[in-house]
What does this fold into?
Amino acid sequence: MSILIDESTTFIVQGITGREAVNLTRECLDYGSKIVGGVTPGRRGREVHGVPVYDSVAQLVGELGFVPDGSVVTVPPAFAKDAVFEAIEAGIKLIVVVTERIPRYDVAQMVELAGLRGARIIGPNCLGIIRPGVAKMGGIGGPAKDAQKAYKPGCVGVMSRSGGMTTEISSTLSAAGLGVSTAISIGGDAIIGSTYAELMPLFEADAQTEAIVIYTEPGGRMEAQLAEWVKQNDSRLPIVAFMAGRFMDEMPGMSFGHAGTIVEGKADTAAEKIARLQEAGITVAEEIAEIPDLVRQKIASKAVA
Amino acid sequence: MRLFEYESRQILEREGIPVTKAGVARTPEEAERIAREIAGPVVLKSQVLTGGRMKAGGVKFADTPEEARAHAEHILGLEINGHMPRGVLVGHKAPIAKELYAGVIYDGTRKLPTFVFSDMGGIDIEEVAETHPDHIGRGHFSTILPQMDFRAKDVIASVGITGGDLNKLTPILSKLARLFVKYDMTLAEINPLAQLEDGSFVAVDAHMDMENEARGRHKALLAELGVGDEETREAREPTPFEIEGERIDSVDHRGVAGNVTEFDGNLGLVIGAGGGSLTLFDAVRKYGGRPANYCEIGGNPSVSKACNLTKLVLQKPGVDKIAVMMSIVSNTRVDIVARGVIKACTELGYDPAEKIAIFRIPGAWEDEGFKILERYGVEYCDRSVSMHEAARRAVEKIGGQAAAQTPAAGAEEGTSGAATEVTQP
It folds into this structure.
C-alpha cells in the first residue's frame, strides 16, 4: 500500500539544470527515487547526476517510450504555469510544484486543468512527498542522510502547510518511535492543488497509516474543509493538529510565514480554526512535543471504540 | 497590494465601467476647484487604506465649493486608524434610487474565482450574507474557458433581477471579472453600485487588491496610477527598523531574512523559516516572553546577512538578549548562521555567551555549527530539545515568566503592548 509514491514511481524534474533542482535531484537519487529524466529548454543532451536532460516533456516521453508517473516542477514563477500545463498535457498524473510566488490566477488555471485531465497537483510552494525508507519526490527532508535521520518508517501520515515543519513534526514522531507512513508538504499558498480533505481518502485507504498529524496556519478555509470532511465521513483515522501563528489573530491584514497566511476575515483566524477542528473531534496540540502522546492516546481510544 | 479608492475607480473607468464624476484633491483649494467643476452637491472621502472612514469622520457632504474646501481641510488632516490620507476624493453626490453590490473574489475551497452580487449594496457584504442570504448571488467562472457573460447574468438573475436592469448589469459584472483576471486582482468590488434616478447604473465606490506576486506583470498600469515600486501598501506603514530589515535582505541575494517586524519586547528573535517562525513566536509568548521582533530567515543566508540582521535586532532599544531558533533545517546551514550571529555579537562588543540566550537550530552542518558555539560558550541544543522548550529556556534566561500560561491569557496580555506598537510605529 502506498500514498502517491512507492518504490517503482518514476518521475522527472522540470527545470532540472537550476541550482536548487540539481541539489534536489541528487538528494532524491541518493534516497532511492527513480528520476528518469529532466527538462530544461535548450539543454537537450546534458546530464544532471546521470539523469538525461531534454528540451521538452513531449521529447522526453518520446525518447523514453513511456509516460513517467510524476514531475517535480522547479522553474521560475513566470514559467511555472506553462511547465505544469506541459506536464499535464503529456499525460503525467502527479505534479509536485516547488516554485514559490506563482500568481494565484496561474495556480487556479493549473489546478483547473489538472482536474479536467485527472492529474493531481501537490503545492505550489511546497517541498514535496516522502515515504520514509522508500522514496522522496522533492526537496523534503534535504539530503538523503538528513532525511533518513528525521523520517523513520511508521504509522503516522503527516500533512503540512510548511515544508520545514513537515520535517520537525516527522522527526518528533520518529524519535518517539511512531514513525511516518507518508509525509506531504502540501504548500503555503492561498490556492493549492491538494488540501488536507482532498488527501484524506488516500490515507484512509493506506493500511500502513493509523493516524494523521496536520500542521496548520491562519488564513484560508482548508481547515474548515477538513473539519467538514471528518464530520461527513466516518474516518478510521484519528487526527491531531498543530496550529502555528496564533499571534496573527491580533494583526489582521498582515501576512506572515507563507503567501496564504493572512487573516482576512473572522473565519481565517487561528482561534476560529481551532474551534472548528475541535468541534469535529480533531485534537489540537499546544506544543509539537505533545503530538506523539496525543497520537498514541487517540489510536488507543479508537481501538477501544 | 491594496489600491486606493481613487485608483480602483480609475481602473473601472479604463475598463469601461461607468463611475460617478470625481477627482482627487491633495489640498483644500484643489477640492474646492473640483467641487466647482462638478457643479452640484459633492461627497468628500478620505483616501486611506483602512476601513471605518465614515465612523472616523473621514466622509463628509457639501452643497457648495466653499463647504467642500472646509471639509477637505479637516479630512486631509485627519488620521484614521494610524493612517494619514493620501488625498481626498471629491465626487458628485448623485441622486441614487437604489444601491447594489458587485464583486469578484477567489473561492479557495473550489480554487476558482467567483462572482458575488447583491441587490442590497452600500453596506458590508459579509453582513448581508449573514442577515439576508437570499439577497446574495454567487457563481464560479472558469480560468481556462473564455470568460462568458452568461455566468454573470445567471448570478444577477439569481437574486431576482430581470428586465432591462438585468441587461444593463450583466456587462458591468462581466467587465469586473475581466479586469479581475487581467490585473491579477484577489478582490475587486463595487460597493455601492448605484442605480440613479434615470435608471442607469454607476460605480460610487470601489475596492481592489492586486496580488503582490503579480505586480511585475502590471508595471504599465501601476506607472499610470502612480504607484511606486517602493510602496508596500501593507496593513500598516513599515517602521524604520522594518525598512532596515528589508534593506539587509535586499542587498545580499544569498538566502532570506524576510518579514522583519517590530514588536515592543526585550527578547530579540533571530528565527526561521516560514512555519518555524510562526511556531517559535507563539512559543515565546506562550511562556510569557516579550518578543522585540519577528523575522524569517531561511534559504541558506550568508554569514553577513545573518550577521547584519542580528546586529539590527541587538541594537534595537530595549533588547537584552536574543534567541536564535529554527525548526530542523535541510537547506540553511547551521554553521553559517552560528558564525553570523556570533560575529554580530563580537563586532558590537558583546559576549556571545551573554547575549545569545539560546541557539536551537538542528539540521544541516549542525556538528560544525555546535563546535563554533561551544568555543564561545553559547548555550545550544539539538533536535532532542523541542522548539517550545528552547523558547521556554530563552524566556527564563531573560527573566520573563517561564511557567506556561494558558494560551488565551498569554495572547491577550501580549496584545496590548505588541498591538499598539504595531499599529503606531
Notes: The mean pLDDT of chain A is 95. Residues 104-117 of chain A form the longest helix (14 residues).
